[in-house]
Specification:
Length: 317
Amino acid sequence: MAAARKFKFHPAGKKAVFPALAKTTNSPSRSVYNGRGDGVMDVRVVYIDVVFLTNLIINYFLLLASAKICARPARRARCLLGAAFGGAYAVLLSLGAAAFLSGPAFKILSGFAMLLLAFGPGRRFARLALVFFGVSAAAAGAVTAAGLFGGARSLGNIDARVLAAAFGVFYLAATLVFRRAARETGRIMTLTLAVETREVTLRALRDTGNSLCDPITGARAAVVAARDSLPLFPERTRAAVAEAVESRSPEAWLALNELETGVKFRLLPYSAVGVRGGMLPAFRPTRAAVDGRGIRDIVVALSPNDISGSAAYSALF
């Protein structure tokens, strides 16, 4: 006899029991007596807290992986908010109370909603969305393959330990391997530098061949056209800084430390095509950020020449 579809909560375990198929069955593992004397019916037991937490964690790391692949700043609190939305959506699907939400269109819309909550709209949002859906599909495939290899007959029967291990391996691969492959030589980014209260924002070229660094601390060096860096220094010292850099004299560069520039200049050795044993004046900024994300361990090397002949960018990093 057909029975109405309903579910029952068990508050202690945050569990819901669903009649999955109202028919007489001999399956003891998935059957309960329906209380009316007309047979037993298959049920599905869903632990709401497990569904939510599992999807929360997986969605959170999928969002982080997508951000890393796209080299996009990620605020962890916002990623957690987007992941929580995805977890709530998964709970609704598990309850079965709103079957129309399980359609492909709603699943895609939920993915876009997660991305908007985590990152907001902006440039290259379409690329971020493509990466997110691609990473999600790849993660689902990897987890399914690991589960089947481990003996599970379906995705729903995958052991939690296998699920965690498979997803962990996939996340590491996505962030380490895919991110490196996704780096684009020639990508333009925003470099913000600050010395005390003075700040300048520059367009910088991500140069994967730039290995310039501080030989003492190992900090990466950003090469900036000297004239574009002048707003970082007090106005009364800008002419002296520009003249010293143009002189190409290490003695003149070190003499700048006698002025109140707000920084301490040092000599940074470098080599380039046709140049051996060259030197550039360098200093450590008070603060620095790339595309709005703060970075540490950076020095700024000043070049007497323009970095780009077309003025498309004024720094290399």
